[in-house]
Amino acid sequence: MSFLQVQGLAKRYGDAAIFDRVDFAIEQGEFVCVIGHSGCGKTTILNILAGLDVASAGVVVMDGREVCGPSLERGVVFQGHALMPWLSVMSNVAFGVRSRWPQWNRLQVQLHCQKYIDMVGLTGAEHKKPAQLSGGMKQRVGIARAFAIQPKMLLLDEPFGALDALTRGNIQDELVRICAATRQTVFMITHDVDEALLLADRILLMSTGPGARIAETVGNPLSKPRMRQEIHHDPRYYKVRNHLVDFLVNRSKTYQLEEYRHEARRRRRV
Amino acid sequence: MRQQLLAGVISVLLLGLAIGVWHLATLPKSGAATVDSEYAKLVGAQAAAGSKSAFPTPVDLGRKLLDHLREPFYDRGPNDKGIGVQLAYSIARVLLGFGLAALVAIPVGFLIGMSPLLYRALDPFIQVLKPISPLAWMPLALFTLKDSNVSAVFVIFVCSIWPMLINTVFGVASVRRDWLNVARTLEVSPVRKALAVILPAAAPTIMTGMRISIGIAWLVIVAAEMLVGGTGIGYFVWNEWNNLSIANILSGILAIGLIGMALDLLFSRLQKAVTYAE
Ligand SMILES: Nc1ncnc2c1ncn2[C@@H]1O[C@H](COP(=O)(O)OP(=O)(O)OP(=O)(O)O)[C@@H](O)[C@H]1O
Ligand SMILES: [Mg+2]
């Protein structure tokens, strides 16, 4: 049995099905990326995995237990960084750490937080308020906050969307390193095909809604460790990349139609 | 910086102009004017005859203000207390009524803001009670509480509760979903969520409500004290009307304005202290 299992997941608002019959599984230590067009329901799926939203149908089982509410076992990096503007960087990170280890004293909390603030390259900005940070720095605080509680699973909603190429590269490298070191299980949403190929072991491609599905699952053929500077020298890189881009440009829209024809044909045969 | 200086100069000039016009208008007129006998009886023969206006000149007022400043806290019986004593009574009533209102409005507002059910259930009551002039409660308060002092405090309580309650409800109900979701994923206890997330998030809105409330309370206390009498700056002004001391009335009005400004300034400071930049 997989570490995370999603079966028959659907979300409807009234009659409109955002997505429908979504099935996938994630193994312990696996890094899975989801790619799909804006509005197809990626954030909604992530919120359901986090326990923040409830599905209209289907179940999510993590580590043998059904997900039925938010938990410290799943760390979330939100699409809008969701920092508390009245708290400093340190306090924002410490906010989660205190919930996770309530028995820790101030020094322990501070040392632990400092480690993660250093990790995302914000050393020296501990006492700044979010309003004094750039968009990318805010996003990094969000990342530090989620990592610092050492969850069993990380849920990342376009965590690098607001970052410049250089910072993004640095944090991606950092993420690769941490995930390799801790065998962290990650579910991440991205719009960036190259990012997915760098980070993910497996890439889920979502078709465009309404009634979106996981249309394809693409295993990453590039072997680990993957280096940002090197992966595009791999002859397989452009093949997968073209496959993914082609999905986004063409197949994501026609998928629904194809699926419908298949279904109709199948029914005729019966 | 330059604009600030210019604004200051204009303010001083305007004040000077106002005092100048006032001075000219209250200059003693020569020659007997036709005098209405009723009016003469009311303001005194000398004033009515026109040798001196009943309305004080700026200098009269200045002298009066100096008297008040020299001895603000004297107390010579029920109808003769220093302006400082009267102001202290009013401020004490306002702070007491306002403080009690805050103790009720903020926790109750928290509950209503967090529970849509409670919001729906209580909204009609709030909508009906809110527009009632606080002074309309005065007779009822005097009848049930049987004490003019307590009644005045009660009226302040009633008038300051609504802006605080409504702003607290609004502030608590409109805390960003994201922040609540963060608290949920971090399994924060309800008490910690209320104190560490909702309270700081809603604090600027709550503070705005408190600032509006203290302003209204200071407006209402003057009227309330004119009604209940005895002590307070409202009573002072009313009493000086009976004594026909326009200079004292003006001193009272000026004091009311200055204290009102000070209260507003205090709360604007507090508001700034809890406001966060996003
Ligand atoms: N309360 C709601 N009522 C009706 N429809 C909703 C509601 N909330 C979200 N939706 C719809 O659900 C769909 C999925 O939204 P979601 O935020 O999951 O998209 P997404 O795939 O994360 O998009 P993006 O890539 O732009 O972040 C959207 O089409 C949106 O219009
Ligand atoms: Mg999204």
Q: What are the SSEs and their pairings?
A:
The complex is a heterodimer of chains A (270) and B (278).
Chain A: E1 4-13, E2 16-26, E3 31-35, H1 42-50, E4 57-62, E5 65-66, E6 74-77, H2 89-100, H3 106-119, H4 135-148, E7 153-157, H5 165-182, E8 185-189, H6 193-199, E9 202-206, E10 214-219, H7 235-269
Parallel strand pairs in A: 3-8, 3-9, 6-7, 7-8
Antiparallel strand pairs in A: 1-2, 1-4, 4-5, 9-10
Chain B: H1 2-25, H2 37-43, H3 45-49, H4 58-70, H5 83-114, H6 116-129, H7 138-145, H8 148-173, H9 177-185, H10 190-228, H11 233-243, H12 246-274
Helix pairs in contact in B: 4-12, 5-6, 5-8, 5-10, 5-11, 7-8, 8-10, 10-11, 10-12, 11-12
Q: What is the compact description of this entry?
A:
The complex is a heterodimer of chains A (about 270) and B (about 280). With about 270 residues, chain A is α/β, with parallel strands linked by helices.
Which features does this protein show?
heterodimer; A: 270 residues; alpha/beta; four-stranded antiparallel sheet; 7 helices; 22% strand; globular; B: 278 residues; mainly alpha; MetI-like fold; 12 helices; 0% strand; binds adenosine-5'-triphosphate; binds magnesium ion
